[in-house]
Amino acid sequence: MGRKWNNIKDKKAAKDANTSRIYAKFGREIYVVARQGEPDPEANQALKFTLERAKTYNVPRHIIDRAIEKAKGGSDESYDELRYEGFGPNGSMIIVDALTNNVNRTASEVRAAFGKNSGNMGVSGSVAYMFDKTAVIGVEGKNEEEVLELLMEADVDVRDVVEEDGQVIVYAEPDQFHAVQEAFKNAGITEFAVAELSMLPQNEITLPEDVIPKFEKLIDALEDLEDVQQVYHNVDLGE
C-alpha cells in the first residue's frame, strides 16, 4: 500500500512540536465523544479510540482529564461534525474534517482558506469517493513477518502490512481497528506508534516541484483553522 504514513505523521509532529494547537484539537474531540456517550473509555469505544490516538501524539494527561471532566459536568456546549471537500493546485483532492460550535463561521473560514491558496471548495461527494476510510495501526519492535503471524493467529483480516522506517504499519477495515489492537495487546504490545482512523487516497498524485509550495501553503492554512480537526489529501510529497 505504501502510504508513507510515518512521514505524514512526522511532519505533523514537527509542525506542532512547539504549539498547543494539537492539544486543543484533541481536547475538543475528547469532550465531544465523552459527551456523546459515557465519559468512561471502558464503556465508550469512541472515547477509548480517541484516547489511544491522543496517546500516540503525547497529549498531556491534564488535557485529557479536563475534557472528560467538562463532559461529566454537563456542559451544554455542543459541536457539529462537518466534512468539507475541495481541490488544490493541479486538481489535487482534499478532505477537511471539522468540529464546530458555529457552522457558518467554519464554512466561511474553510472556503476562504481554499480560495486564498490556489484551491476551491467542492460539493459534498466530489472528492470523498476517491478515498477509503482505513484503520492505521503502527508498532515498533516487530518485523513484518512477526506481525502477519500474530494477526493470522488472532484470525484478524487486514488490507496490508508494511514495514516503514523501523515500524510495522497495519492497514485494515475501520471495523477491525479494535481487533488489530487486541491482537497486538495479547502479544504483549501495548504501545502504538500510530493509532488512527484515516481517509487514505485510492491513488496518489505527484505535483511539479514549483507547485508543491502552493499546495503545502493551502494545507497549512486549513490545518491552522481552529475548528479543523483533520486534513487528508492525495498528494505524494515524496518525503
From TrEMBL:
<keyword id="KW-0805">Transcription regulation</keyword>
<dbReference type="Pfam" id="PF01709">
    <property type="entry name" value="Transcrip_reg"/>
</dbReference>
<feature type="domain" description="TACO1/YebC-like N-terminal">
    <location>
        <begin position="3"/>
        <end position="74"/>
    </location>
</feature>
<feature type="domain" description="TACO1/YebC-like second and third">
    <location>
        <begin position="79"/>
        <end position="235"/>
    </location>
</feature>
<keyword id="KW-0238">DNA-binding</keyword>
<dbReference type="InterPro" id="IPR002876">
    <property type="entry name" value="Transcrip_reg_TACO1-like"/>
</dbReference>
<dbReference type="Pfam" id="PF20772">
    <property type="entry name" value="TACO1_YebC_N"/>
</dbReference>
<keyword id="KW-0963">Cytoplasm</keyword>
<dbReference type="InterPro" id="IPR048300">
    <property type="entry name" value="TACO1_YebC-like_2nd/3rd_dom"/>
</dbReference>
<keyword id="KW-0804">Transcription</keyword>
<comment type="similarity">
    <text>Belongs to the TACO1 family. YeeN subfamily.</text>
</comment>
<protein>
    <recommendedName>
        <fullName>Probable transcriptional regulatory protein AM1BK_27070</fullName>
    </recommendedName>
</protein>
<dbReference type="InterPro" id="IPR026564">
    <property type="entry name" value="Transcrip_reg_TACO1-like_dom3"/>
</dbReference>
<dbReference type="InterPro" id="IPR049083">
    <property type="entry name" value="TACO1_YebC_N"/>
</dbReference>
<dbReference type="InterPro" id="IPR026562">
    <property type="entry name" value="Transcrip_reg_TACO1_YeeN"/>
</dbReference>
<dbReference type="InterPro" id="IPR017856">
    <property type="entry name" value="Integrase-like_N"/>
</dbReference>
<dbReference type="InterPro" id="IPR029072">
    <property type="entry name" value="YebC-like"/>
</dbReference>
